Amino acid sequence: MQHELTLGEAADLLSRALPGHRVEILQGRLIVTPPPDGAHALSLTKLGRAFDRAGIERSGLEYVQGIGLWLPHLPDDYAIPDFSVVDEDFCDALVQKNCYAPNVFRLVVEVTSSNWTDDLGTKVESYAEAGVPVYIVADRKHGEVLLYRDPENGKYPAPQRYERGQQVPVPESVGVSLELPVDTLLDSC
């Protein structure tokens, strides 16, 4: 007798079969992203350093890379943001599969890779529906950084756009005051 895999089971199998790849389920679609390139990884390292300099340790917050965010769209939906600022007690909000409840996420950052359309489309919708207060996309494909904030009724208003040479102000609602250089977010190598 054959057993048809659920989407969650298929995601688990792919995660084991493709080490280093990011497997997510967004709006009922299975998404597999290859490992990040050096510039992508270095951007996230520099982002962490910026939050350290801004005093995140004293703010009651933490920053983390690559932890799951449980999404409310469909029962198996989850994303794995590149970088997140979360409440320091986020571990208490574990839902399942190393994914945490959306209410502990203050800010999510994605640095685009080969599947950049997901970061600019599906994830915008999914993070807004989850109520993530601030979503920043370093859009390497188009050379700009987009700042989404304050979702209402499951949707973000139009994003603020920042070009090379500019600074992206992290909204005060995140709990840490700093500005992020667009150039660093787009190309750290």
Overall spatial form: globular
Percent of residues in beta strands? 25-35%
Sheet with the most strands: spatial strand order: 3-6-9-10-11-12
Task: Give the low-confidence spans.
Answer: none
Integer-rounded radius of gyration? 16 Å
Indicate the mean pLDDT.
93
**Largest β sheet strand count, sense and barrel closure:** 6 strands, mixed
Quote the distance from N terminus to C terminus.
52 Å
What's the SSE pattern? HEEHEEEEEEEHHEEEEEH
Class by alpha and beta content: alpha+beta
Estimate the helix proportion, in percent: 10-25%
Q: Give the number of DSSP strands.
A: 14
Total count of helical runs of at least 4 residues: 5
Descriptive report:
With 189 residues, the protein is an alpha+beta fold. Helix content is 24%, strand content 31%. It has a 6-stranded mixed β-sheet, sandwiched between helices. It has a 4-stranded mixed β-sheet with strand order 5-4-8-7, with no helix packed on it. A hairpin with a 4-residue loop joins β10 (134-139) and β11. The longest helix has 16 residues, at 38-53.
